[in-house]
Specification:
Length: 411
């Protein structure tokens, strides 16, 4: 008999794995049982973290193949760095195809691949093994996005017409690990790293509940990238010291904006405007979105969290991220995101994909959606490089590699 519970193994033991592990406290029918990471100590530490959270009898495995081969592991959550996606998925798929292990599902973090070619290869690999796949995009599951989307459509759009403009932004002061800053390893700068969220959020908001994302057809795309902060000599030097990357030689963009013109099922235009930044110095990570229609609007800002603390200058303490992710200060008036794993959508996302892999509902996002996101991002880079709006899909998209990702972008 197939188990009614899902045993989960994580690839990667870093920042995002720990976010998901916290989220699993709110998922009833899954156990976090495994973690693999090239650094055995880090893997053991993440496994301990999961046990302390009481989300499962988690242990570290010696290899991805060992983890997949264990009958207790039913699904893999991929949280390795972007440059390891292909090798990670190849090892999973080899293990399954050789009959050494079986899986009910694989969930993969954003971005699915660093280029359209990589994303296509990943999709082909997972389909060759016949494994169900889910694309992890937490912001679509953020409670405010879910309720705002439902209610604007149910009340506003149902009576006065579909929305025509969606905006989304993700902004913070820069990534936590060196590999994110390297255009070659990560696949780009902030456009690749964070626009994947915002571009999908706008498309999702503009799409009716129950309608497929494909109902909204991307027709034209305009991308813009810039280095506003991190190529300034003072900040380039600080970055070289903290992360070992040299933005005087091979910079990545720290600002990106994308406008996508969609065609609605009625043949009208709907616009998605997204902007992302690694040069936003505010209290910490800020996620925001808006949806506008003929007689209604919604807006969301994750820093309007409902809890503010004030610390006078007499309060001395260590720098930390205990108030909010990517926190920038410890004194003054500070918003607190009380439960980030819930607020950013990880909990509802993990609950959904567990239910999907248990066969209780269809996955809301698959690697096909992940591929489409990569197509939009690469088209945005193409537009930014050419300095003009492009019809979507632009020519040469499948083979395109952004100049940033080749380490030869000149801002
Ligand atoms: N949804 C989100 O908002 C969000 C947030 C952060 C990261 N992410 C994504 O999650 C993934 C992980 O990011 P992170 O922030 O945890 O990074 P991280 O650097 O904190 O952690 C990466 C982990 O992968 C491990 N690793 C190193 N080489 C590996 C390899 N060859 N194969 C597998 N694992 C390897 C590292 O040891 C580390 O444990 C990335 O793809 C990133 O884009 C998503």
């Amino acid at each position: 008999m197939t188990s009614p519970r899902l045993g989960i193994g994580f690839i990667g033991s870093g920042f995002n794995t720990r976010f998901h592990m916290q989220a699993f406290r709110g998922v009833r029918d899954a156990d976090v049982l495994g973690v693999w990471s090239p650094n055995a100590k880090h893997a053991a530490s993440a496994a301990r973290f999961a046990r302390e959270l009481d989300v499962g009898a988690c242990r570290a495995y010696k290899s991805i193949a060992d983890m997949v081969a264990d009958p207790a592991i039913d699904a893999i959550w991929i949280n390795g760095p972007n440059h390891a996606r292909i090798e990670n998925v190849e090892e999973i798929v080899d293990t399954v195809r050789s009959g050494r292990g079986t899986l009910r599902g694989i969930a993969c973090e954003k971005p699915l691949g660093r280029t359209v070619a990589e994303a296509r290869q990943l999709l082909k690999l997972v389909e060759s093994a016949g494994i169900m796949h889910g694309y992890l995009e937490n912001q679509l599951f953020a409670p405010q996005v879910v309720r705002g989307h439902e209610l604007t459509w149910k009340r506003g759009a149902a009576t006065t017409g579909r929305p025509y403009l969606a905006r989304a932004a993700e902004e913070h002061s820069g990534p936590h690990m060196p590999w994110f800053w390297s255009g070659v390893l990560q696949g780009g700068g902030v456009l690749n790293d964070m626009m994947c969220h915002s571009v999908l959020v706008v498309r999702h908001l503009l799409t009716a509940p129950g309608e497929p994302l494909s109902a909204l057809v991307p027709r034209r795309i305009t991308g813009h990238i810039a280095s506003l902060k991190w190529t300034q000599p003072k900040y380039a030097k600080a970055l070289r010291q903290s992360s070992g990357v040299d933005y005087t030689q091979a910079p990545s963009e720290d600002f990106a904006s994308v406008t996508v013109e969609f065609e609605t099922p009625e043949g009208r235009v709907a616009i998605g405007e997204a902007t992302t930044s690694w040069s936003f110095v505010g209290p910490g990570l800020r996620l925001s979105a808006e949806l506008l229609g003929p007689e209604y609007s919604m807006r969301w800002n994750s820093l309007e969290s409902g809890l503010d603390l004030f610390f006078s200058r007499a309060v001395k303490g260590k720098a930390g991220e205990d108030l909010v992710e990517k926190q920038n200060a410890e004194v003054g008036q500070m918003p607190v995101v009380a439960d980030e794993a819930v607020a950013y959508g990880y909990e509802a996302e993990d609950r959904h994909f567990v239910r999907a892999f248990l066969g209780k509902e269809a996955p809301k996002l698959t690697w096909h959606d992940g591929l489409e996101v990569v197509q939009l991002l690469m088209a945005a880079y193409q537009s930014a490089e050419q300095g003009k709006t492009l019809a979507f899909p632009p020519r040469g998209l499948d083979k395109f590699v952004p100049a940033v990702a080749q380490g030869r972008w000149v801002p």
